[in-house]
Amino acid sequence: MYFIAFALLLLVAYGAVLVVEARRGARFFAPYREALDRAASQARFVVLHIDFASFAREESARAARYLMHESAHLALQAVRAIERFLTRIVKRLRLHPEAPVSPAGESARQFVRALSDLKVELSTSRREMREVR
Questions:
Q1: Confidence tier at 77 by pLDDT (50, 70, 90)
Q2: Among residues 122, 103, 119, which one has the least CA distance to residue 111?
Q3: Is residue 130 scored above 80 in pLDDT?
Q4: Residues 40, 20, 17, 32: is their CA dihedral positive or negative?
Q5: Interatomic CA distance for residues 50 and 59, integer angstroms
Q6: Are 115 and 106 in contact (CB under 8 A)?
Q7: Among 39-43, 87-91, 121-125, the least confident range
């Protein structure tokens, strides 16, 4: 009900504006309406004369190139960040070795020491084999 009343009110107001403009011989808000008319005519020209299929194809290709460029750029930045991190680690390890050097040529690691002891033990406990002809 209110919709119908509002539509009728708008229709009466539009008619009143047309009557007043016809009597005055001038339009209300003429500069703004002329600018709107120019914009509408330009939009109509664009719609009638532009090939939207080729435009969409070119724009999608441009967007794909842009996305590929950005993804390659981000991948390069990630690789460079990893490279900087690894470079810092290597530099630190070269400047400050973590494993202390043991005196008299002994190995600092227990595993290597245990293997050496086992080797010595095996060589001393081995029986001599007679020669095979």
A1: very high
A2: 119
A3: no
A4: positive
A5: 14
A6: no
A7: 121-125
